[in-house]
Amino acid sequence: MAERTGRMEGLVLLKALVTRLLFMLHSLVAVWRVTWVKKEHRYWLLALLNLLLILETMLTLKFKHGRGYKWVSPAIFLYLINIMPSLWLLEMHHGNQYCSAQPEKPAQNFSRRGDVNLTLMSHGLTNGMGNILELALGFVDNLSMVCEPVWTLGLHQTLLLILIIGRWLLPIGGTITRDQLSELLLIFVGTAADILEFTTETLKENEVRNNPALVSGILVVWTWSMLQFPLDLAVQLKLVCPSSVKARGFLRLFLCQYSADLWAIGLSFFIQDGPFLIVRLVLMIYFKVINHMLVFFAVKNSLVMALHFYRLVALIMATRASMQGHPESSQMSRHSGPDQPSESSPSEWEDTSREALPLQTSPVTSEESYPIP
Question: What is d(CA 58, CA 20) in angstroms, rounded to the nearest whole number?
Fold first, then answer.
């Protein structure tokens, strides 16, 4: 038993470390791409943000033994802090609008390979390690030749995928079950698809790209929508309300019974579908940016918000019915007949059955019950 516990603890620590290393690696790739686009090495200072994630890793391993926290994931939050500035810089870069041919880069790449080969030959490393370094350099050069919009879109896509996979790999804390985790991951998949559609459909328009203030506004809404990923409230707030809550009023009963549903509705209204709908309406009405995809997703956001509002009304009506039905059910339990089953406790059933025994026809066991002919 102790050996099995030790293996489980080791697996938890391994998953915690691997997931955080994946976060750091992806953020470093984004920083490298910013330095390549901007042609300035000072942007490598963005990599210092990973120190926060390293500190969080040390604290989690020491105090939580690699396991998660209640209601929030600090690792995912710090990962977003690490990579968001890089994606902002890439989206705001003016040359990020089009994929244009760049014939001068292959020559630069070949010259760099020649310099590396001369360095390896001078150190006697032409075989083994030298071949590996040459292949790695060629792979990096090929990645560098990919145009900027493709790179930025790839970083957006991998960001959402790593968020989902990372949340799956992160060890489960003491307040969330595997069933709740699976439900949370399904929510993240739908959320990630909607967020990716929002960024690709709005930022690809030329009218938007030529307006830096509009690009900044869209990125602010996108950043705001990403803050829902570190939170687990949508699946951890499902509480079992005691019967005494009904006596405290409608609002307390409503918040107690449907806290998880209210959180999901709030996410839709104030973090995702609501802001997305406002941005799309502004683009269509004020900036005259109209296409069939933009109209479709605007209608989709409106429909989702309408369905959530319908859900909210249904929850309110259900709570009112529960509040009104509680005293009536107690009265019905007192005066219930054979066609109206009462809601009394088992002890009350025993008492009523004992009182009803004299009224029932007792079995005939003596000769005095019937006259002898």
Answer: 11
Q: Which amino acid makes up residue 116?
A: V
Contact between 304 and 268 under an 8 Å Cβ cutoff? The reply is: yes
**CA–CA distances in Å: residue 121 to residues 138, 324, 354:** 17, 87, 102
- The two three-digit tokens of residue 360, written as one number: 């029932």
- 122: Cβ–Cβ under 8 A, 6 or more apart, which residues? none
CA–CA gap between residue 352 and residue 32 (Å, rounded): 79
Residue 267's CB is within 10 A of a number of other CB atoms, namely 20
Please give the Cα distance from 69 to 175 (Å, whole number).
8
- 208 with 218: CB under 8 angstroms? yes
pTM: 0.75
Give phi and psi for 302, each to the nearest 5. Answer: -65, -40
Residue 128 per-residue DSSP state? T
pLDDT at 312 over 80: yes
SS3 state of residue 340: coil
**How far is residue 40's CA from residue 208's CA, in Å, rounded to a whole number?**
26
Q: What is the pLDDT of residues 212-251, one digit of tens each?
A: 999 999 999 999 999 999 987 766 555 566 666 666 677 8
**Contact status, residue 144 vs residue 105, Cβ threshold 8 Å:** yes
* More confidently predicted of 286 and 123: 286
Q: Residues 66, 16: contact at Cβ < 8 Å?
A: yes
Dist. CA 343–CA 329, nearest whole Å: 7
